[in-house]
Amino acid sequence: xxxxxxxxxxxxxxxxxxxxxxxxxxxxxxxxxxxxxxxxxxxxxxxxxxxxxxxxxxxxxxxxxxxxxxxxxx
Length: 74
Description:
Distance between the termini: 81 Å
Number of helices: 2
Region (Disordered): 1-32
Radius of gyration: 28 Å
Oligomer: single chain
């Protein structure tokens, strides 16, 4: 016959393992969400590229001239 201390220790160990499994599952779900977000962001950037080219630049709407490109690169 087992003592109550041994039984309690076994129950606590089982609960701890169950909690760890649940935590890992949650982590995996969060990881999958992050991957999906990256894919969604990638698609929106690709779609947005045409829009930027149409506007002629990133935020200003102006195309950089050759001297301006050289100045920003230096």
